[in-house]
Amino acid sequence: MSKLPFIQKISDHLQHLKNLSKTEQGKEILTFLGFVVLATGIWFILAINDTRESIVRIPLELTNVPEEATLIQDMPPYIEARIRDKGAALLSYNINGIAPIKIEFDRHSNQRDAITISNNTLVEYSRKQLRATTTINDFAPDSIRIAYTTDLGKRLPIAIKADISTSPFSTLSDSIYATPDSVTIYGKAAQISRIKEIYTEEIVAHDITDTTYIRAHIQPIEGTRIIPDSVTIVIPVEEYITKTISVPVVIGGVPSGYSIMTFPSHISLTCLVPKSKYAQIVSEEFLIGNTYEELEKTPGTYGAITVLNAPNYTHNIILKTDSVEYIVSENTRQSNNNVQQPDTTQQP
């Protein structure tokens, strides 16, 4: 059923061409198009038989790499060669591609720290992948040297470089961290022994409203190989929500022998807290009030109060009232030692 509309369209186009061929203008257009197609065909035949130059890419593959060997640099993915041949051969390379050159690790390893492939060897390998009629005029790279190491490497922690900010109604719920939290660096022992941590490339994220995961590349260090070369940065973010709680008023520094009462004795406090802390927060974590010395400086029986202490994860703290009425009273205590007892002793 799905083929019917397509067949119908072809039929409609053919019918349109048939109708067009019956008019003088249509005959002229079709004749012109016929010459264009013929000319294109002739040009194509001449082109594929003409000798010309082209640039092709010959893939490279490094094979049989031992498990204990770690490449410090990657093998180039291809050789870019400027070749000369008939157009038909060049067209075949473009359509079918070129088989990759397979380079044996053991054959080119110096058994110490590098794989080296000379210019002559690359020419020899390249000719085997091309037709006998193809001439290589130039290619790049003209030689290859790949450093490697058989050392175990050194595991180092990740240091995150980041420019991060949350939205006004969100906050970091924990420290920013990387996963994995460490990587392995390979290279010359003298060089990697001086390296204490590995940095990520700087990540930038602003106005974050929820926990965010960012893929960060490791900052490369010349002459070394770091595995893995990227990590996931986790930015734990959560929303603020409003919390209202009743907190007792505390007056500090009351002189000995005196007591003080405030009206009201508790103040309603409203603040923004991270969502995960909402159920945990209690009034004992806050300290609201003033000092006796400050109250004495204020005329009358009303004194200002303020937030003296609060959890560091709370924000936008608002008190229902910023002053209270207070009454200072002196503590009176009768001591039996201060009352004179009557003398009941009789004289003879």
- Gross morphology: elongated
Mean of the pLDDT scores?
A: 85
Structural class: alpha+beta
Straight-line N-to-C gap: 143 Å
Main beta sheet: strand number and arrangement? Answer: 6 strands, mixed
CATH topology of the largest domain: RNA Polymerase Alpha Subunit, Chain A, domain 2
Number of helices: 7
Q: What percent of the residues sit in helical stretches (DSSP H or I)?
A: 10-25%
CATH architecture of the largest domain: Beta Complex
* Total beta strand runs: 25
Q: Class of the largest domain in CATH?
A: Mainly Beta
Count of domain modules: 3
Uncertain regions: pLDDT < 50 for 5+ in a row? 334-348
- Percent range for β-strand residues: 35-45%
Our Rg estimate from Cα atoms comes to 43 Å
Overall description:
With 348 residues, the protein is α+β, with helices and mostly antiparallel strands. It has 7 helices and 25 strands. The longest helix has 26 residues, at 24-49. The chain is elongated and about 120 Å long. The chain starts with a helix and ends in an 18-residue tail after the last strand.
Short summary:
This protein is of the alpha+beta class and 348 residues long.
Helices, strands, pairings?
Layout: H1 3-21, H2 24-49, E1 51-63, E2 70-71, E3 78-86, H3 87-96, E4 101-104, H4 105-108, E5 114-117, H5 119-129, E6 135-140, E7 144-149, E8 154-159, E9 162-166, E10 170-172, E11 177-179, E12 182-186, H6 189-192, E13 198-199, E14 203-208, E15 212-217, E16 225-227, E17 230-235, E18 237-252, E19 258-263, E20 266-274, E21 287-291, H7 292-296, E22 302-304, E23 306-309, E24 315-319, E25 323-330
Helix pairs in contact: 1-2
